[in-house]
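fyi for ur records
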Amino acid sequence: MTAPQLSAPHERIRTGRMRHNAERWSWMFMRISGAILMLLIFTHLIVNLVLGEGVSQIDFAFVAGKWAAWYWQVADFLMLVLALIHGGNGMRLLINDYAHRTTTRKVLHSVLGVAVVAVIVLGSLVIWTFDPCPVDADPSLLPGFCASVAG
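which gave:
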């Protein structure tokens, strides 16, 4: 009786990365960013939903008051960037696993990259250029500190 014939292993997918150990660094980034994201997300949820009046307190004034402090802007920016890069890296791995044609894989990687960069840029603009005291706004909707700035 002879041993069954084994088929040739699948062709290895080239990711186009030139750096040594790129997948190892990707793996480490996913673990580290995941741990940091857990801390940021639970802090975000506790501050926004558990402390105070819960979800009913979240309005323009709440966000304006929160983003008046630089550390909340930094925390939200860090959460935005880490979440998008973490999710983008995970999607990159899924594309590598399921897109077998090189052209399809390249197109999907390009679309993913453009989407991640676009959302990071737009989210960053919102966080860093947010004006808590816009001109011509209804004063009843503005946070309390806007009256002292305007007057």
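The longest helix spans residues 22-50. thats all i got for now
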